[in-house]
Design goal:
mainly alpha
Length: 236
């Protein structure tokens, strides 16, 4: 998949199913929020860093899982429909995995360091994570402007939804909830209502209720949650 691209390129949905959109919005928001926290944390204060480093590890775990999902379900589907190569995206994924290992090594170094050493290591982690985000945002842009049109040309929306359902079906309940926590506050109100409205119709009631209580309510403002409740006709 050797396509030159420019960061300002945009590809309109034209009513097609947005397979990449919600998860990429969730990852972008979570990464940028975490970058701000890395930038304003005093790493010399060990108490201030423990939760931050735990949250970073959690995000990297989800990012790694996201790559596996794309490899196993999206890239394989493209190859099965005759796309000559997904090598470019595959190589970008491999680069990300190498970066995850480097970031984990920095996290472990901070945890093992003496207080006077942590500020230097914290700055290194901040810069390394910022660089990773820069590469990942460009990578996601390529997926949304190069891979997505290929998917639209080769698959119906029903087939794209089936791919997404296979990804969701491969998740543990804990990981599925973690991904919902990323996506729900990052997407538009109408997108949020459409995603959760579909879940309300198709998923077991206890699973839907859990997402509302543990992913939507804690991660939305009062106004955003009230809007969602109105759109989904949720009982107060």
């Amino acid at each position: 998949m050797n396509h030159a691209h420019h960061p300002t390129e945009a590809v309109d949905l034209n009513g097609r199913y947005d397979l990449y959109g919600p998860i990429h919005k969730g990852l972008r928001k979570a990464q940028c929020d975490l970058l701000v926290r890395l930038g304003n944390t005093d790493f010399a204060e060990s108490g201030a860093t423990a939760q931050l480093l735990s949250d970073l590890r959690g995000l990297l775990t989800l990012a790694a899982a996201h790559l596996e999902h794309e490899d196993a379900h999206i890239h394989s589907a493209l190859r099965a429909r005759g796309v000559v190569s997904t090598d470019r995206l595959d190589h970008q994924h491999d680069d990300h995995r190498g970066t995850f290992a480097e970031l984990e090594a920095l996290v472990a170094a901070i945890e093992a360091a003496k207080p006077h050493e942590r500020s230097v290591l914290g700055r290194r982690l901040y810069l390394a994570f910022a660089t990773y985000i820069a590469h990942d945002i460009e990578h996601m842009h390529e997926e949304e402007t190069v891979a997505a049109p290929q998917l639209w040309s080769l698959f119906s929306d029903a087939e794209l939804m089936a791919i997404e359902n296979r990804i969701v079906g491969s998740l543990s309940p804990e990981k599925a909830m973690a991904f919902m926590r990323l996506m729900i506050p990052a997407i538009q109100p109408a997108e949020r209502a459409a995603m959760l409205g579909g879940m309300k119709q198709q998923a077991p009631r206890e699973a839907f209720d859990a997402v509302i209580e543990f992913a939507a309510r804690p991660n939305l403002s009062a106004e955003e949650f009230a809007d969602l409740a109105r759109r989904l006709d949720l009982v107060a």
